[in-house]
Amino acid sequence: MSFAFKKVSQHPLIPSWMPIIPVITALALCSMPNAAKAEDNPPAKSRSAVQEFAKLTELMRGSWRVENTAMRDAPEHGQKIGDPVIAYATITPNPAGTVLQWDVQFGSDVTRGLVSVTLGTNQIRSFNTAPDGAHWELIISQTKKNKNHWTFKLANASFPTGEAATGNGTWKISEDGKLFTTEATIKSADGTTIELNNRMVRLSKSTDAEKLASASVRRFLRNFNTRNVSGLADEFMENSVRVISLYQLPLEGRDAIAKSFKERFADEDDSDAGSLDAVVTNARYISENVILADGTWQIIDAEGNTSRAGKWGNVLQVVDGECKLLMESAHSEISNEEVSEEKSASRLPVPEALTAKDDPVVPLLERSIMRYTNGMQASNFDALAREFTSDGVQLVGNVPGPSRGYKEIAKAFSVGVGEGSPYEKTVLKAKVLGLRRIDDQLVAAYGVWSAHTPDGALIDFGQWGNVFRQADGEAKMIIESAGSFE
Prior knowledge:
single chain; alpha+beta; ten-stranded antiparallel barrel
């Protein structure tokens, strides 16, 4: 939803809770529509809240992109006033259809709402909490004139400070069910007033991103551990790309990927052959029928020891109810001590050709790389973290675990390229080798990187497979998945 906030009056508490996602997004998004005024929304005997709730469930279940605008500078989130703020909402009914769970994910934070019918008062109510301690309820009802219009009243709301708030607003859901807009007025106890105008865009009617991604991983593991080359190849789209630590250059297309599996298994010593294990850490729809998922993997030897391990961040296309890999990007985790000139001594020539040079996103990607390179040389962790979207994720080889959101990503940079790291103030060179369009805003791109000393000596090199979002003439990373060549 695009949060366009209009401040009617100032209040010292507003800057602390209003600007970003945790409270307002949830207030506007996680809360469902209700009556604008209590007197406009009596628990009319002629109306059935149960029937209205069933209609609301039908309209709202699914996966949504939440589009907001920051209303103030928020250094703790790496944002300035007017910056776009993206989150993702998953709205899921329970099996009995009596409760809607509404989760809004922003970085590593999740705001949760539970919506159900209070039979005693014949009302639909939502109960919401945010990670910063905010809490609120909504009373929701359908308008008589338009089945896709709803009203809501804010009740029992309090800010993280404990100060109370009231408010009311309306929901409008487009005829095709793909756009959900909110208009609301929120008032604090001292009379401070905030006007909200925001929107959500439907990505899928499904809420099974994690379930589908996990099923994809299970099939991949089964085929890998039985050395089923054709089964593995079938997990990839025809035009997919594989970007992994074992290779110096990307593998482009299903045929090349199948060939790489065949060659790898043929060269394997059965006595040393390891089994692969992997899990999904996070999965979400980022476009219609496209899922972005990340997780961890490990190779386990015959004695049950982990011989190699790392992280993966993949783009999955939903085809006939199953996920197929559009881009796999998986890299080993390594310690700084493992980075050496000897490991990086032998390199293949980097291809000159870009597989999609006509795409207007290419210069945007190159500008992002330039800013990233400058941030590396200057050890400017803030600038580096700002190369990610507000919902960004970083998965890099020399930093343990995933990093989500501005704070975690900035901290990861301080570890990965800060003092004591072999990459500290290095000269980074990176090149885009290809890309795959996801939609008009999103692109999966991949390429190679190398780190050098100021006098040009090679320190390390590897691959990257990232997802970027275009906005306001620039491209920023939704996910960075990169690592060293083994």
